[in-house]
Amino acid sequence: MSQHAVVLDAHLQSEAPQALGKTTVSLPLGQAREQRTAWLLSLPAVLLIVLFLIGPIIAIVLLSFTDWQLGMSSYNWIGLANYIQLSEDEAFLAALKNTLFYVALVLPGSVFGGLAIAVLIEARPSGVGLYRTLFFLPVMGTLIAMSIVWEYILQPDFGLLNMMLAELGIEGRNWLNDKDSVMYVLAGIGIWHQLGYNMVLFMSGLLAIPAQLYEAADMDGVPHGWSRFRLITWPMLGPVTLFVVVITAIKAFQVFDTVEVLTRGGPGKNSEVLLHLMYVEGFQFFRTSYAAAITVIFLFIVLLITLLKTRFMEKKVHYS
Amino acid sequence: MADIKLSNIKKSFGNTEILKGIHLDIKDGEFLTLVGASGSGKSTLLRIISGLEEQSGGSIKIGGNEVSSKRPKDRDLAMVFQSYALYPHFSVRENMQVPLRMRLPISQRLPLAPLLSARAKAATEAVQQRVIEVATQLHIDHLLERKPSELSGGQCQRVALGRAMVRDPAAFLMDEPLSNLDAKLRVHMRGELTQLHRKLGTTFVYVTHDQVEAMTMSDRIALLVEGELIQVDTPHNMYHNPSHLKVAEFIGSPKINLIPATQSSRGRLAFAGQSLDTITLDVTSGESQVCIAVRPEDIRLAPNSNLAARIIHIENMGGEKILFAKAAWAQGKLAIKLGADDAQSLMPGDEIKLEFNPRKAMFFDRNGQRLHRKSTSMGAH
């Protein structure tokens, strides 16, 4: 994503001096005209971005400082009241905690899992296509539909999981209604869903590693397995890994579908997450400004991840 | 240091035969160049020697030991790759340490080992010392802390060489190491590699498609054509005494001129309606088509000759000029190398008269095999 931006920047910088040089030689007016053309050409894109991205974000930020509710004809500016209320709202604190817990499980699980699967599949010459398809299937399915299937699997009385456990002599539990297990189950489904996507990204990263590096390692006597992974594969996958981590983190923060279908935040508030809470507050209780405040906090977290990526991590993973 | 003996090396990918039984003895300390067009199998042969590729048949002996079943790292060879294949996240120092460190026992390789054991400390210091020694020799000691991305192509090339040298291998294998460099640097590195070889005295096996590199650097050249070794010989003999038309065509720039001729059953030659009385070929077969091959520098202007040609293009090299001319008797384009003074007044489109030195001409039969002169008439050949 931002890699492209960097490339574009470099491109512009290398082009700019030439373009400037030409215009100043011919006509001072030409430069202004060129700038106007540039703005004109990018206007549709700028308009769309303002309309659908920047505009709504500004609206939401402003909204979060009011007491407006859906359908009301008037509103009052109430300053930080929504945020103060959030900081005391147990539902919100639970949602924040659960979301962080969910991310803490899904992020490493699906990143390292995807990497492991990609490396294992690439290491074997046969069955690459089959394994790739199998692991990628969950990504293509609609998560809402998949969640309904999971609901049947996890159903306490006649669900597939508990029936299988019973065969082994283990007593299953009411997975989704148990406050100790519900977040683990949701995280498990999250990992299952994200694994294939990460695997595909890692596979493309693996294919991009020059074969001569491995051959040089062969000549240098680097043993197969872990040493080789640490010396070549892992460092060379740096840019892909960074991308995967950021995408996975943002996707994990966005967890909603499974929660809505399987638990609706229950039992109690034990599986409440940020986006689901926002949905409930905004579209069930119609407390629009309160939901806006939750959204602002959510956006802030996503922004933080993106900033971390561009400012800090990107420098460490690119070698050229 | 070691010699390398290849016997009957074969390699096929599926039904495609890449190498068709290669026999080659590379002497200890020799600079041997494997040269050939792309697809001739030269890189495959080098990779088979290194162990990166497995041969379909035949055996490899390095220093008298059969290594066919050994892994690359156990063959005591070092390789320089075309793309340098430096580890991009490692500094120059770390890159050069890898082959040495990987051969330490694992207990001495661990990050904290030098702090804990005196032996590990000594081993690590020896590695450091050796890296600095080699880096100094290659004039890259000031670059040790840099990453490969901060180096120029030539510097990367030196680091790759350094990584190969630190271990003092039995032989160096080089796979087109200069082809990623610009022309000027390539010429420079050519000289440096030759000097390095002289200084180290180790066996070099060098793969290139560039006949100039082969001619300028090697002790011996091995020309591969479609998986077969056509000739293995010194650069001088490859140029002046090729055994096959393909060798004559591959070595030398511009390419050797080919003039079709007929040969009588007594070995007399005739071309362009005239006979060459001075030459008798040592042949046993009857009348047949032959090919006269003449190097561009063995043709000269001769106003009284009856061999006419029309200049189509002149390449000015400064000290000399290369004329490309069209002539019916040569059935195609001729290249003629002339001194700048001789060619001064010539222009494209000019009609010129040529003659060639029959003593320097070479003759090949229809299959490309060299035909020699009858020894009675021409001495040695």
Please tell me the overall pLDDT of chain B: 86
Radius of gyration of chain A: 25 Å
How big a fraction of the residues of chain A is strand? under 5%
The whole-angstrom Rg of chain B is: 26 Å
Helix fraction bin of chain A:
over 70%
**Biggest interface and its residues per chain?**
A-B, 20 and 25 residues
Category by helix and strand content of chain A: mainly alpha
Uncertain stretches of 5 or more adjacent residues of chain B: 376-381
Structure description:
- The complex is a heterodimer of chains A (320) and B (381).
- Chain A is mainly α.
- Chain A contains 14 helices and no strands.
- Chain A is 77% helix and 0% strand.
- In chain A, helix 4 packs parallel to helix 8, helix 11 packs antiparallel against helix 14 and helix 13 runs antiparallel to helix 14.
- Chain A is flat, with a radius of gyration of 25 Å.
- Chain A starts with a helix and ends with a helix.
- The N terminus of chain A is likely disordered.
- Chain B is built from eleven helices and 21 strands.
- The C terminus of chain B is likely disordered.
- Chains A and B meet through helix 9 and helix 10 of A and strand 6 of B.
